[in-house]
Amino acid sequence: MGKAEKTRQFIIEKTAPVFNSKGFWGTSLQDLTYATGLTKGSIYGNFKNKDEVALAVLEHNLNKVSSLVIRAIAEKKSYRDKLLCYPDLYEDFAKHDFPAGGCPILNTAIEADDTHPPLKETAKKALLYWKDSLTYLINKGKEKGEFKPETDAEENALAIIALIEGSRMMIKLTGKLNHNRSIMQTLRKLIVEL
User: Where exactly are the transmembrane stretches of this chain (predicted)?
Assistant: First the structure.
């Protein structure tokens, strides 16, 4: 990796928690210079504008979450256990290397739904990929006889996402982790009963 790429990566890593916590509109250039210790010229010498930084940061945060999930799933043998990684990871998200500020999909969807089409599109692609990945795991579990044959894979994939993202919203609004524990227990029951 050359010096320019190292600098870009440094900017992404240092500003990722800021964007994910404050959002695109809430993050100022001053926030970026403070987080990185770089000047405005150094930041814009590596990125065209704040939009380009924000998109790179969103990809970075999405990859961070995806890597955590992929590693956890790879360690499990059964498809049920692979799905149970989700409540385990999201119940103890503070113990894992989740992006500061919460779920990048939820954060971006709330802020960029009508105001920033490129961020919205990136979050949408990540959400649909997540749904397809869950649908795949459920269908493989059905093939292996782990889940009931009548289980609707896509319907349950959507329910899993809704429970996880709903728990993220509850934590953000109330600050109470016990709500998250209750929702993750509901998610475990859903997975066990597939």
Answer: none
Q: What pTM did the predictor assign?
A: 0.88
Let me know if residue 15 belongs to a domain: no
Helix (H, G, I), strand (E, B), or coil: what is residue 82?
helix
Predicted confidence (pLDDT) per residue in 147-169, tens digit: 999 999 999 999 999 999 998 88
Spatial separation of the C-alpha atoms in residues 94 and 96, rounded to whole Å = 6
Q: Could you list the residue range(s) of the whole structural domain that residue 164 is in?
A: 55-192
Among candidates 20, 19, 67, 71, which has minimal Cα distance to 43?
Answer: 19
SS3 content of the chain, % helix, strand, coil (to 5): 80, 0, 20
Q: How many separate domains does the chain show?
A: 1
Q: Decide: 67 and 89 in contact? Cβ < 8 Å.
A: no
CATH number of the domain that residue 156 is part of: 1.10.357.10
In this structure, is residue 111 part of a structural domain?
A: yes
